[in-house]
Amino acid sequence: MVPAAALAAAMSAAAMSAVAAPQAVAAPVGDQDTAFVRTVHQGNLAEIAAGQDAQAHATTACVKEVGEVLVRDHTKLDTDLKALAGKLGVSLPAGPSAMQNQELASIREKAGSPAYDAAWLKAAEAGHAATLALIDREVKSGANAEVVAAARAARPVVAMHLQMVEGGTCHAGMDVGTIHAGNGGQLAAADDGSHGTAALVTVAGGALLAGFSTGWLLRIRRRSATGR
């Protein structure tokens, strides 16, 4: 049996140790962070649905290819986002918003005609521009470090998608590779080389991202000059 004096001394030492030890404080999840995660999740689901629809109903190979890229990238981005939401205890909507569903249904009414491609590109441009603005707001003023990091990692992907549909014009050749789920959304070259383009570094390499952007612009200018 432990003497009372010894037991009291041990309990006192444990209490002092607990007070002295640094306390791990979880990063807060603010209202903006929660809204960001939920909105971007719905955006991912909407872009996946739009990409699948384009593959089925677009009239041009370019729009079909961009649709395939959106399905691929937003599926993998959303895998990471859902894992983060689960970790932070953020509940997610089950599907796209009613407005997003209605917009896609309206575009689908033009299926099989050039008007479909034009409407699809216009909607894709507006959606990605809005998402990019949402990302920049979260990066600037988000409270939770993990959500802010996820926003930063997703930014180059969304920016690439926007450039692929900018001005309502299709630029499928801007696809720079796949995104590996589970690595914070960074872009990497396809493991099997099927996409044939070198990797785009993570958002931390902002200077390299700018270099790729310059390359895309030069490619577009060359095509314009040669008429191809």
Key phrases:
single chain; 228 residues; mainly alpha; two-stranded antiparallel ribbon; 2 strands; 2% strand
Structural notes for this entry:
With 228 residues, the protein is mainly α. It is 67% helix and 2% strand. It contains seven helices and two strands. Strands 1-2 form a two-stranded antiparallel sheet. The longest helix has 28 residues, at 61-88.
| Straight-line distance between termini | 90 Å
Mean of pLDDT: 78
- Counting copies of identical and different chains, the oligomeric state is single chain
Largest sheet report: 2 strands, antiparallel
Topology:
Elements: H1 4-20, H2 31-57, H3 61-88, H4 98-108, H5 114-141, H6 145-165, E1 178-179, E2 187-188, H7 206-226
Antiparallel strand pairs: 1-2
Q: Outline of this structure?
A:
By secondary structure, the chain is an all-alpha fold.
